[in-house]
Each structure stands twice: as C-alpha cells, then as structure tokens.
From TrEMBL:
Name this protein carries in UniProt: ABC transporter domain-containing protein
Disordered: annotated span: 1-37
Record-annotated ABC transporter domain positions: 90-124
Superkingdom: Eukaryota
Native source organism of the sequence: Perkinsus olseni
Any single Pfam family the record assigns to this protein: ABC_tran
PANTHER family the record matches: ATP-BINDING CASSETTE SUB-FAMILY F MEMBER 2, ATP-BINDING TRANSPORT PROTEIN-RELATED
Keywords: Repeat
Keyword DNA damage annotated: no
Sample GO molecular function, one term: ATP binding
InterPro entries in the cross-refs: ABC_transporter-like_ATP-bd, ABCF, P-loop_NTPase
Length: 149
C-alpha cells in the first residue's frame, strides 16, 4: 500500500514537472489526475454494449457493407450521416482495416466524435467479431507512449 502511494506521488510529481515545462496546468485535481489502469479501463467502454447518445437518437445513418461477412477488413460504401437536418458525411466509402487504430482530426463541431460514436454503437453494419473501443475523455499526460498504454 505504501509503495503504491509512493509510486502515485512520483507519477504526480513527473506530471507536474512536465506541465511546468510545457506551460500548462491540468484542470483536474491532484487526486483525480492519477488514474490506475483499472480506472482507465472503466472509462473505456466496449462499444458493443454502448447505448446511443442523445444526439444519435436523431441521426439518420446509411451505408451498406460491401466486404464479405467474415472478412478481416471492412468496407462500407455510400456511408452518409445526417443529424437533425445537418449533413455530416455524404456518400463516402469507409474502410476499416484489421490491426489499425483510428482517430479523426477536424474543426470543433464538425462531427468527429459523433461519427465515431455512431460506428461504436454499430449503427452501420459492422460484424460483432470486430472489437470497437471508444475513449470518452482526454487521457492525462504521462511519459508513457500511446503504444505502451
């Protein structure tokens, strides 16, 4: 128990030093910023059991899978997403390849998170054998690389 607390203190000290070097401060309190692996896993949800968000209740998402059902790579053609009359994506081909991790970059409010939530909620035809994980919160800064996490 003492070793765990000492490790948490060292981790927090490293984080504060890194924040000072980078010129920003974490918005979380000291106790909240120290996440254990178990706490992080609680934040990450297996999207197969994820419920639709309030926004996705008003979404119209279309597209059809053109890849074989047991294929390792998934291809969805004519993928479109309209929410409350606003068209986010129109007739796009979406390809998801085995072994890859995906994220999205774009302007605020452009629908990045909503698209990922729709895929995670399996609102398009994505086979059950495909694992989808969605992180809802920002992960606190650390010395650990993304591949080590």
């Amino acid at each position: 128990m003492v070793n765990k607390r000492e490790a948490e203190r060292k981790k927090l000290a490293k984080q504060k030093a890194m924040e000072k070097r980078r010129g920003y401060k974490s918005t979380k309190s000291d106790e909240e910023s120290v996440d254990t692996k178990a706490e992080l896993e609680k934040k990450i949800q297996d999207v197969g059991t994820m419920q639709k968000s309030e926004l996705l209740q008003h979404a119209t998402i279309t597209g059809h899978r053109t890849s074989q059902y047991l294929a390792k790579d998934i291809k969805i053609e004519q993928f479109s997403m309209i929410i409350e009359g606003k068209e986010y994506i129109k007739d796009t081909t979406l390809e998801l390849n085995m072994g890859r991790r995906y994220g999205m970059i774009g302007l605020n409010g452009s629908g990045k998170s909503t698209i990922l939530q729709a895929l995670a909620a399996r609102m398009v035809d994505i086979p059950d054998y495909v694992d989808i994980w969605l992180l809802h919160e920002e992960y606190p800064p650390s010395e650990q690389t993304a591949l080590e996490a």
